[in-house]
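Our preliminary data section would be incomplete without showing what the modeling component actually yields. Below, a chain of 210 amino acids is followed by its predicted structure, encoded as tokens that our downstream tools consume directly.
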Amino acid sequence: MSQPSGRILHYRLSKGWGNVISVTVKKQKKYKTVRCKLEIMHAFDTWERDHLWIAPLGPVVVRWFPASWSLKERKERERFQAVVQGPPDSFTAEALAVKEHLTNFVNPLHIKAFKEVKNPDGTRKMIAYFESWEDLQNILSKESFWNGAKLSWCRHTVPSFITRRKVVSGLIPIGKMNLTSRIKAHLPNVPKLAQDPRQVLLPLDQIVSP
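Predicted structure:
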């Protein structure tokens, strides 16, 4: 799905959320973060009152955050996730956002937000976000159905990436020649000193759109 322009976003926000005072858009790789200052109308107020982390924005459902939140605070909402791999064709983010399904399916399962993902091989998965470990365990331990089809939920974790960083052993200088150079000069057949093989796990740094 193509990303909407700033003008289109302004129109959708005004139509669905309230009187828009200002909008700024920041690109973050394949996502966009939209910072919006507006006078919230009743339609959006119901989403906040129900403690949902999502709201409809035109034809899509987006995750929203208070503007004052830092990236760390936003990422905290991704701690507890469950996923359904290869869900039924009718089990889509658009269908879940319908008021009837929010009332009868999403809220009873304590789902705070959801995201539909299309895999490179053409298959789909539906990710659900929860506020607590207890809510996550609840959906994993109980059966849930969608239009008569049983959903198989399993825990979903955010992938992390490990980057190797070379850490060179310290060398002790002796005059104008360090110790390694002196060893090589006198013992040319001695193998090179091994580098420290330790690995460093770098921290993994989304809007909020599905």
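The longest helix spans residues 6-16. Residues 161-169, 190-210 have pLDDT under 50 and may be disordered. Preliminary results of this kind motivate Aim 1 of the renewal.
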